[in-house]
Amino acid sequence: MSSPFSGSARPGPGAPSLPTPPSGWPIGSYATYEEAQRAVDHLADNDFPVQEVTIVGVDLMLVERVTGRLNWARVLGGGAASGAWFGLFVGFIMGLFSAQGAWFGPVLVGLGAGVVFGMIFAAVGYASTRGRRDFSSASQLVAGRYDVLAQPSHAEQGRDLLARLAMRPPPSQQ
């Protein structure tokens, strides 16, 4: 299964190596990526040459959802937690190369140093905003609609298959 954001380090046969506009004729348009994915899956199940299909997100929007308010306690706690994980990792690696049975000390030192440095870096970052961004958020790139395109030689067949899919109820109602 692939993600809409995943990609290969090397393009496959026929895939452009530089960003290029998509080619093909529209054979379906959907409100959600899940619906477009279902349509392409239906095409694949019916032996359609899906290697000639492209899902295109149209009317892109960057959506930033606010997840909470930031204050010094939350910033320092988050910095301590992320520093602790990194410190544990470094301490564990150092412990692997220490004398037999002496791994506990490096892990504790790594944990302590990670917490301290994590809090310092988080405090410096938060203080540098000077109260202009006292909230945390998560960003997501979404599209207003998702068009499924197929190469002209297979567009009519693809439209016919997707028309049959539209006649069936969605999987949640079956």
UniProtKB/TrEMBL annotation:
Q: Which UniProt keywords apply?
A: Membrane, Transmembrane, Transmembrane helix
Q: By its UniProt entry, which InterPro entries does this protein fall under?
A: GSP17M-like_dom
Q: What's the protein name?
A: General stress protein 17M-like domain-containing protein
Region Disordered: start-end pairs: 1-22
Q: Which domain of life is it from?
A: Bacteria
State the species of origin.
Answer: Halopolyspora algeriensis
Bias category Pro residues: which stretches? 13-22
Spans traversing the lipid bilayer: 75-97, 103-127
Residues covered by the General stress protein 17M-like domain? 27-102
